[in-house]
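Lay summary. Proteins are chains of building blocks that fold into shapes, and those shapes determine what they do. In this project we predict the shape from the chain. Here is one chain we studied, written as its sequence of building blocks.
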Amino acid sequence: MNDALRQQSWKIRTELPVEYEIVESHGLLDPGNPELLTIPGGGRVGGTRLVILDHSVDALYGEKIRDYFSENEVAVEYLTLPGSEENKSIERVLEVVNKLNEVGTNRLSSPPVVIGGGVVADVVGLAASLYRRGIPFVRVPTTLLGQVDVSVAAKSGINYGGYRNRLGAYTPPPRTLIDRRFLATVPDRQLRNGMGEIFKMALIKDLRLFELLEEYGAELIETRFQDPEPGSTGLPGAVADEVIGRAIAGMAEELQPNLWEKDLQRSVDYGHSFSPLVEMRALPELLHGEAVAMDCVFSALIAADRGLIDAAELERIVAVARRLGLEPSHPLFCDVALVLEGLADTVLHRDGRQNLPMLTGIGQVCFLNDVTENEIERACRGMGRLLPLDAAHAERPVGADR
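And here is the predicted shape, written in a compact code that computers can read:
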């Protein structure tokens, strides 16, 4: 036999069990609360732990965080990073990696802790996935967007080449800790930003959540999701708990069967089909949740144009977005060429198919793969009528010329 034709092959098949937890714990920064000290998987802390904060968290809670670890006699070093979308970059990832080296982070027993918004959580998540080919970390989201969206995700990502989350990995932290008290210091706009993702979850699968937003959304923002003062007649804390709880539970239910996104037909991609490129082109003008909410409206216009939802449902969707302080439109969503470019990139991301989640009612979706350029053009015109300064059409009903 010709040695050049000889061939051997081996196939390796294995399964990796994945388990991670999201823990809601009030008063995380109380030195008597042990949650921040707990090592994922049990065991004892070994070596110095790195705690990464974003600038806003450091300014607001830095002293309290340092007191927490000091009173618990834990060896900690700190790294503070900017939390804006423009800093969701490979350079910031390498900054975290360099600090992990400097601290001397152990493979398992000294997991870093990231306390901050979604940008810093993504940066640290990707750094942890790369460092020693993957180390555990603990995630403490301090924004509403982080608590209802980032908290559940298995993936991390950074922006690259002008595209959102172009580089990333699927590496969920074993523990994510949520404390609603952090929201007390979150600016109104950032709360509305988080509401964009809650709005999405309500539209795709939870009519009850939509009704809660419709009735209490504005008040939740006004009270920053906090419990009322003793003796006051404010909004009960149970409402905030239900809204956050339903958003997290809904996201977890959708992600768990498809954590690695092998199935590219995902209802949670609603609001993320046309917005990623618009969001990047608009930086720093639009926040992520703001762009997602606009995409939700844009997709609802397509659904209404097809007769999948009726005019009353469309009006209700737009009204709730506005009630949450979210503008339903932006000039870039009226740019047909840009929206089509964004859709083309989405099709590449979904391996050649549109897989567009589309409402068939509030709380229900189907998937489309045949949305045409003409439909996009009509939706762009509809978004033009929803622009906040479009006085000429201010009194026209949504979808008037469908």
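What the prediction tells us: Residues 390-402 have pLDDT under 50 and may be disordered.
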